Amino acid sequence: MFKKILIANRGEIACRVIKTARKMGIQTVAIYSDADRNALHVQMADEAVHIGPPPANQSYIVIDKVMEAIKKTGAEAVHPGYGFLSENPKFAEALEKAGVEFVGPPVKAIEAMGDKITSKKIAQEAGVNTVPGYMGLIADADEAVKISNQIGYPVMIKASAGGGGKGMRIAWNDVEAREGFESSKNEAANSFGDDRIFIEKFVTQPRHIEIQVLADKHGNCVYLHERECSIQRRNQKVVEEAPSPFLDEATRKAMGEQSVALAKAVGYASAGTVEFIVDGDRNFYFLEMNTRLQVEHPVTELITGIDLVEQMLRVANGEPLTIKQEDLKINGWAIENRLYAEDPYRNFLPSIGRLTRYRPPAEGTTETGGIVRNDTGVYEGGEISMYYDPMIAKLCTWAPTRAQAIEEMRVALDTFEVEGIGHNLPFVAAVMDHERFTSGNMTTAFIAEEYPEGFEGVTLPKDQLVRVAAAAAAMNRVAEIRRARISGRMDNHERHVGEDWVVTLQGESFEAKINADREGSDVLIDGKTYRVEGAWTPGDSLANMKVDGAALVLKVGKISHGFRIRFRGADLKVTVRTPRQAELAKLMPEKLPPDTSKLLLCPMPGLIVKVMVAEGDEVQEGQALCTVEAMKMENILRAERKGIVAKINAAPGDSLAVDEVIMEFE
Q1: Helix, strand, or coil (residue 236)
Q2: Can you give the pLDDT at residue 34?
Q3: Is 326 helix (H, G, I), strand (E, B) or coil?
Q4: Other beta carbons less than 10 A from residue 610's beta carbon
Q5: Counting CB atoms within 10 angstroms of each CB, which of 201, 348, 595, 610 has the fewest?
Q6: b/e sequence 586-601, b meaning 16+ C-beta within 10 Å
Q7: Pairing verdict, β 562-567 and 570-577
Q8: Which is nearest to 122 in space by CA: 112, 109, 114, 131?
Q9: What b-and-e string marks burial along 242-261, b requiring 16 or more CB atoms within 10 Å of the CB?
C-alpha cells in the first residue's frame, strides 16, 4: 500500500479522504491557496503545500503547481476528490508520466466518460438507455435556438465537461435557450476551461437516481445499489438518500447491470457513478457517468458498510476487489442533507463570512439506535470564501427504516448550530417535514413546484406551536428567576415570579399558567396541561427540552420580552409577557420596513460581470439588468416591473457586498 498520498482538493472532501488514509496508516499531503491557509484540511494533513492565490484557476486546477507539490513531498499517489482536476485527463496523464498513481480510473475512461457527448454515444453502443438530444458541438446561440426547436422544449443546455450543476440551464423558449447557452458557455469556461455545450430533451416529472459502481484493474465490477438525488436547486443536489423510495427490485437490478456494462465497456477501474433520469413509469435514461467519488457517497457507505475511499486506494494499488455482487445487500436507510452557505430567504443566493458559531450534532450512534455522520471542512471561527463551492457540511443519518432515518435527520438538524452567515439549514429542515418528501413522491422539480415564490420559512402546525409555546413559558420562568436573583428582589422565588403569562408567536397568543416543581413545570394552555422538562439555563443557545415526554430541541436567542426560537425550519419571534404587558403591547404601532422598490440591490456578495442597461433606458418587467458572479455561478438580475434607469452605481469588475445598491430607478 502507498506510504504517502497527496489530496488534490480542499474542503470537506479533502478532510474525508484524510480520515480514511489515516485509518489505513497512509500519510497525507494537503495543498492550499492563500484563502485556505488556515483551512481544516490543512490542519488535518501530515504535510501541506501552498500552491497559489485564491482563484482555483490560479491554484487548485493548475496542473503544474500540483505536480510541483507532488515532487516536493514525494507523494506516491494522488486522490483528486471531486471537482477541480478529478475528471481532467491531462492531469491523469501528467501523473502517469511522473510515475505517480492516480486514485481514479484510467485516462481513456476519463476521456470517454468525462465528455458527456462521447459518453452518451458509448452508452448507446453498450445498450444503455439514453435521452434524446443533439450530440454534436454547438457553434453559437443561434444554432442552440435552432436545435432546441428541433428537439422540442423544454431542453437542458449542458456543458460537455460540466458537473456539480455548473454550466447547466433549462430552457422553455427561444429567449431562455439563447441566454442559457451564453451563461452555460461562460460558466463552463470559467469552471472547467472547456466551453463546449450540448443540448438534450428535458424529461418532465423526472427523478434523479444514480448507481454507484466499483471496479478493479482485473476486470471485476460491482454496483453498490442506488442513490436518489431528486431534490435539487439550480441542478445541484441538496438532499440525497439511499436506497430510492421509488425503485422496485427489478428496476434496481436493470439499472445496476447497465451501469456495470457501461463501466466494463470503457475499461473502468475505481469508484464511479452512473446517473439516470427516471420517469413516473420507471423508464430510466442515462445522463452521464462521473468518473470520480460523488459528493453523496456517504449514504451508500452507510447502507452497504463499504468505505469507498479505501476501495479506491486499494484499486489504485492494484488489488483485486474482494466484494462480490451477491454480498452487497441494502441495510437500512440513509439520508444526506447538504448544508450550504446560501440564504434560502434570498432564493438560495451565496453567503460568505465568518462562522461565528459552528456546532454540528455529535457523530456516532444515537440514543434511538440511529447513526449521525457529518462530513465537513470548516470549523467555528473559520471563513466561508467567495472563491469556492458554498458547501459547509454534509449531514447524514442512518436508521433501519426510511421513516426512522428522516426522524433522526430532523433531530440532527434541530441540534446543528450555525451562525454568522446565511445558510440553508431552515430549508432542509422544512423538506424533512414536507409531505411530498416523507411520502417519497418527489421529482427534480420539487423546489420549483413547492416553493415557486421562494422559501419564506415554515409555518408550524398548531400542535407544534403549542409545544414551543409551553417550552418558552417554562424557559421564561427560569430566566425570570435568574433576573430576580441577580437584582436581589427575591429570597423565595416562588413568591416573586408570576404564574400567569401570555406567549405570542407566529401571530397567535396563548394564555399560559405555570405550576413548577423541582423536576420541571406543568404549563396549562387552552385547558390542556403540558409537562415541560429540561436543563436549559439563560444564555444557552440550545434548549434540549421534553414536552409530555417527547424531545423538543430549540435553538434559542434572547430578544426583548422573550426569545428568538428556531425549530424545524421556522424562525420565531416569541414574546412572553404578563397579561397586562400583553394588553399594552397590542396598542404599540408596527415598525414598517424601508421602501426599496426603486432600487436594485445586490442580493449576495459578488462580482459585477456585465451591466446590460444604461442610465435613461426604459426597462420592461423581466428584462435582464446585470449579471453578478458568486461562488463560480452567474446570476442574472432582472427588472421586477417597468421603469426608467435613473442611476447606475456599479460597473463590471466591481465587488459588491450584500444589499449594496447596483442601480436606481425613477
Answers
A1: strand
A2: 97
A3: helix
A4: 14
A5: 595
A6: eeeeeeeeeeeeebbe
A7: antiparallel
A8: 112
A9: bbbbbbeeebbeebbebbbe
**Pairwise CA distance, residues 583 & 497, whole Å:** 19
Q: List the 197-201 sheet strands across, edge first.
A: 133-134, 197-201, 155-163, 166-171
Beta carbons of 279 and 206 less than 8 angstroms apart: yes
Please state the φ and ψ torsions of residue 300, each to the nearest 5 degrees. Answer: -65, -40
- Which positions are catalytic? 288
What pLDDT is stored for residue 493 in this prediction?
A: 45
Residue 466 contacts residue 510 (beta carbons within 8 Å): yes
Which cell numbers hold the place of 437? 418528501
- Give the pLDDT confidence score for residue 163 in this predicted structure: 65
Question: DSSP letters along 582-626, please?
Answer: HHHHTTSPPPPPP--TTEEE-SSSEEEEEE---TT-EE-TT-EEE
Q: Name residue 524's beta-bridge partners.
A: 513, 529
Q: Cβ(555)–Cβ(566) under 8 Å?
A: yes
Grid cell 421529482 is found at 443
Q: Which residues contact 64 (CB under 8 A, 6 or more apart)?
A: none
448 alpha carbon, distance to own chain's centre: 16
Asked if residue 555 lies in contact with residue 417, where contact means CB atoms within 8 angstroms, the answer is yes
pLDDT along the chain (666 residues), means of 10: 98 98 98 96 98 95 98 98 94 97 96 82 92 82 94 88 77 95 88 85 89 97 98 90 97 98 97 94 91 97 98 98 96 97 85 92 96 97 88 97 98 95 94 96 92 91 96 94 70 66 96 92 96 94 95 94 95 95 86 83 89 94 90 83 94 91 94
Q: What is the pLDDT, as a whole number, of residue 300? A: 98
State the amino acid at position 570 in one-letter form.
Answer: A
- Containing 578, the helix (H) or strand (E) segment is none
The C-alpha atoms of residue 392 and residue 261 are separated, in whole angstroms, by 35
Cell for 65? 503547481
Q: Please enumerate in sequence order all residues whose Cβ is within 8 A of that of 461, keeping only pairs 6 or more positions apart, or say none.
A: none
Residue 435 φ then ψ, to 5°: -60, -35
DSSP H/E element including 8? none
- Contact present, 390 and 350 (Cβ < 8 Å): yes
**Closest among 360, 362, 359, 356 to 382, alpha carbons compared:** 356
Q: Please, are residues 334 and 303 in contact by the beta-carbon 8 Å criterion?
A: yes
> Angle at which helices 116-125 and 107-114 pack, to 10 degrees?
100
Residue position matching grid coordinates 479533502 = 14
The torsion angle over the Cα atoms of residues 85, 208, 213 and 193, rounded to 10 degrees, is -10
Report the candidate in 404, 505, 511, 512 with the shortest Cα–Cα distance to residue 457: 505
Residue 386, CA distances (Å) to 150, 211, 257, 295, 438 in order: 39, 32, 41, 20, 34
pLDDT, residue 614, reads 95
DSSP symbol at 636? E
Q: What pLDDT, on the 0 to 100 scale, is given for residue 208? A: 96
**Cα 130 from Cα 121, distance rounded (Å):** 9
CA-based nearest residue to 58, from 241, 239, 193: 193
Could you tell me which of 569, 331, 234, 247 has the C-alpha nearest to residue 432? 569
* 3-class DSSP assignment, residue 79: strand
- Round to whole Å and give the CA distance between 432 and 569: 9
Q: Please give the Cα distance from 529 to 306 (Å, whole number).
A: 49
Is residue 200 a contact partner of residue 156, using CB atoms and an 8 Å limit? yes
